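INTERNAL AUDIT FORM
Audit reference: QA-55
Scope: verify that the stored structure record matches its stored sequence.
Auditor: D.O.
Record contents follow.
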Amino acid sequence: MVHPFFGGTEDDEMWLYMCASNDGPQDPRMKPPAEDLARLGCERVLIFVAERDYLCPAGKNYYEELKKSGWKGRVELVELLDEKHVFYLRNPTCTNALELTNKFISFIKQNNGSPRNSIESKY
């Protein structure tokens, strides 16, 4: 996930348009219950967040909720410092965009021998 969007707030216009009838921030379509996260159908998840992105806390919360859910896979969180939402689209050749791309490629190519959960924040 690269700068994931977990909306569902009462004032989120896109959320209200897509799901006029919803349970607000706790709606399971936007905040899946732990038992659903525990059944996630993959072995690894990589989550990128940008430090100055208003969605950064939601991405970090998803990381924490996934770890606590009992899911047996490996999850990694990478926080790119001093960047805003989707910075890599606005400036695809900047250092952090290239680092994001390289990390993504490395994640796809990696074998199953890496740690279960990790946080990386060096970029």
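Auditor finding: record pair retrieved intact. The chain has a mean pLDDT of 85.
Action required: none
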